[in-house]
């Protein structure tokens, strides 16, 4: 048989999450859903943190992540650029998160109008909870983790969102993540970028950066 | 006094190590719910059926309580409606699992499917009065799909058996 043309199988380590997602969409359209299942397993943490970074509480975030995956199935045939599916998922998850935040604010306003004043059950004054768990809440097994998480909280919210997401993805995906969350191109990737530079500087000032350099 | 790091330098090995640790700590600090992947996959499978999703009618006794939070220790009746059909089911715990007794209106023989996670599907057909049952079903998430011969397929939202 003559030499058949086929794609070179690359080292899986070289193929980014975004590439695998694009491949999975094409597979799914051909009636093979197995690759997409793998992508759901791999990318759900990224979507979870995308939604949580918008200040959505865990129960609502759970719904938004599921709805994002359902939206992918429903729009499978209308996604014009499968290679941009990672960005499409992140944008969809963020929109879902904003809708959840708006809904919660409406409900809270409604409740406040109904019973003005502190919560009748707990006596506590209502406040919008911060989405990031406090450093204390981290099951930090070592000082290094605790320092990193504490220092990380001192970054601006936009930087926290960017770094939290890229830390769960592969390097070729960084540019799609930046685009999806509206950060300038080149925020991180080939160069360190402003957010990671700031984190490194803060870690240095805390005296902890050596730990990573010599790790 | 330390020198600030430049944003314009190439990403180095320490940057990568810091990012890897950050990803790990973020997942510790804000863990993804254990079964979110499985529930997402189940929701995607159901969405791919392209059925009309019915509305869950709120039961007076269940007001303010999510069905999934109620321990399944006694029988409960749930009604679902769509523009074309109504499905009423009673879910009761049994010795070998959960028993579902259902009824669909308008009456007539209709194929009924019980979808479970991991692609498991049980099927039955109603009698001429629209009655159907599934016996000794494992507890957990489920969705019923009705496929009438003369109309669009309808499905229930995911319920916890």
Can you give a write-up of this model?
The complex is a heterodimer of chains A (215) and B (161). Chain A is mostly helical and 215 residues long. Chain A has two domains: 2-104, Rna Polymerase Sigma Factor, Chain: A (Orthogonal Bundle); 135-210, Arc Repressor Mutant, subunit A (Orthogonal Bundle). In chain A, 58% of the residues lie in helices and 0% in strands. Chain A is built from nine helices and no strands. In chain A, helix 2 (34-52) packs across helix 3 (58-74), helix 3 crosses helix 4 (85-114) and helix 4 (85-114) packs parallel to helix 7 (174-180). Chain A starts with 16 loop residues before the first helix and ends with a helix. The model of chain A is unreliable at 1-12 and 125-129 (pLDDT under 50). Chain B is of the alpha+beta class and 161 residues long. Chain B has one domain. Chain B contains two helices and eleven strands, in the order H-H-E-E-E-E-E-E-E-E-E-E-E. Chain B has helices spanning 13-29, 36-48, and strands spanning 52-53, 55-57, 76-81, 86-93, 98-105, 110-115, 121-125, 131-137, 141-148, 154-155, 159-160. In chain B, strands 1, 6, 7, 9, 10 and 11 form a six-stranded mixed β-sheet that branches. Chain B starts with 12 loop residues before the first helix and ends with a strand. The interface between A and B is large, with 55 and 38 residues.
List keywords for this structure.
heterodimer; A: mainly alpha; Rna Polymerase Sigma Factor, Chain: A; 9 helices; 0% strand; disordered N terminus; B: 161 residues; alpha+beta; six-stranded mixed β-sheet; 2 helices; elongated
Order of helices and strands of chain B: HHEEEEEEEEEEE
Radius of gyration of chain B from CA coordinates: 23 Å
Could you name the ranges of chain B where pLDDT drops below 50 across 5 or more consecutive residues? none
Give the tally of structural domains of chain B: 1
The count of strands of chain A amounts to 0
CATH uppermost class of the largest domain in chain A = Mainly Alpha
Quaternary status:
heterodimer
Helix fraction of chain A, binned, reads 55-70%
What do the pLDDT scores of chain A average to? Answer: 83
Task: Give the structural class of chain B.
Answer: alpha+beta
Low-confidence stretches of chain A: 1-12, 125-129
């Amino acid at each position: 048989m003559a030499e058949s043309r086929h794609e070179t199988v690359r080292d899986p380590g070289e193929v980014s999450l975004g590439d695998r997602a694009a491949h999975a969409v094409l597979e799914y359209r051909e009636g093979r859903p197995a690759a997409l299942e793998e992508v759901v397993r791999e990318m759900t943490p990224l979507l979870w943190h995308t939604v949580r970074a918008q200040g959505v509480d865990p129960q609502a975030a759970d719904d938004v992540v599921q709805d994002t995956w359902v939206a992918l199935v429903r729009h499978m045939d209308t996604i014009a650029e499968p290679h941009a599916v990672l960005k499409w998922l992140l944008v969809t998850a963020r929109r879902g998160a904003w809708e959840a935040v708006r809904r919660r604010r409406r409900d809270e306003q409604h409740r406040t109008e109904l019973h003005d004043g502190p919560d009748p059950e707990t006596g506590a004054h209502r406040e919008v909870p911060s989405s990031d768990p406090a450093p204390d809440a981290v099951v930090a097994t070592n000082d290094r983790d605790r320092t990193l998480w504490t220092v990380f909280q001192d970054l601006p919210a936009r930087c926290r969102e960017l770094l939290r997401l890229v830390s769960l993805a592969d390097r070729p995906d960084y540019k799609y993540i930046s685009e999806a969350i509206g950060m300038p191109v080149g925020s991180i990737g080939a160069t360190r970028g402003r957010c990671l530079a700031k984190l490194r500087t803060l870690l240095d000032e805390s005296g902890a950066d050596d730990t990573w350099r010599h790790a | 006094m330390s020198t600030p790091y430049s944003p314009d330098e190439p990403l180095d090995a320490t940057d990568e190590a810091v990012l890897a640790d950050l990803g790990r700590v973020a997942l510790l600090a804000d863990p993804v719910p254990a079964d979110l992947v499985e529930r997402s996959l189940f929701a995607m499978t159901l969405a791919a059926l392209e059925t009309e999703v019915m509305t869950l009618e709120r039961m007076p006794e269940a007001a303010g309580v999510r069905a999934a939070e109620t321990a399944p220790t006694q029988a409960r009746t749930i009604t679902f409606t769509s523009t074309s059909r109504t499905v009423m089911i009673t879910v009761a715990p049994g010795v070998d699992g959960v028993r579902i007794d259902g009824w669909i209106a308008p009456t007539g023989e209709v194929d009924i499917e019980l979808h479970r996670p991991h692609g498991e599907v049980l099927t039955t057909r109603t009698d001429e009065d629209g009655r159907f049952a599934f016996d000794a079903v494992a507890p957990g998430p489920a969705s019923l799909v009705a496929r009438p011969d003369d109309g669009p397929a309808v499905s229930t939202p995911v319920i916890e058996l």
